[in-house]
Amino acid sequence: MTRISKTLSVELALLTVPMLWGIGYPLIRESMAYIGPLAFLFYRFGIAFILLLIFYRNQWRGVHLRDWLKGIITGVVLFLAYAFLNWGLVYTTTSNAGFIIGLRVVIVPVIGAVLFRQIIPGRSWLGAGISLIGLIFIFFGAKATVKSINPGDMIMLFSAIFFALHVLLISRFIHIKNYVSNLIAQISVVTLFSGAAMLLLESVKLPGSLLVWQNIMITGLLSTLLAFWLQTRFQRHSTADRTGIIFSSEPLFASLFGFIYLGESLIGWQWPGAFLIILAMIVSQLPSRMRQKYLQFKWDR
User: HSE-up of 234 (CA within 13 Å, CB side)?
Assistant: First the structure.
């Protein structure tokens, strides 16, 4: 296999990851009419956790406690990101959710500067400014009043912030020797926390709808297990900048599958808002020597 064909294969594999994430948006939103957001999260990650234990049953030995602790910290942040994601999809559309979550590409360097004193290049500030304008269009594009803001959109913004923090923790904690233990720790923490939150905040019962079980299986196997595996398997063969641009396609897939499956779409001025957010994500990921030196991220969800 030539170098060009190998690069193409890697990037096609990475492109599959945001596509699998995008598939999950309409399935989660559809399921929220029959099951609570925490219960759905528990069953989805529970299935992925059981399968991970089976697939990696021989790789548990010799794992350092420090690696487990890193995985637990990262898993707590991932739980909060997905909890807000599911909660937000109770109220907002898949298109709005996808584009707002996509803002994590722009939020990452800002949080990195605040928490880890990373230098923010000019491209990131430009991307942040463009994305802010785009976000205003998303919030007010349907009806230009403060009262018209969808509460689900605001909840999604919190989800995007936690996904951005998750990206930063992955970049600091994960390396080739500990990605399996970290992956298992993250998924187990999400399963545990979502199960506990479900017991406290929602009614405890098995989903009574075959449709919900179908959606749980698809998101658990494809949007979680397979997406995680593809990312950890192929991302190390690409650069952070190129991976970031590829993963910026997630809102496009979310909107596409939301339209195909649920008939949902953006409204009015939300369309230019979506364009501005995509532009912001691309601008913030343009390669530069400064970004390669200070912001070498691994992307995860």
Answer: 21
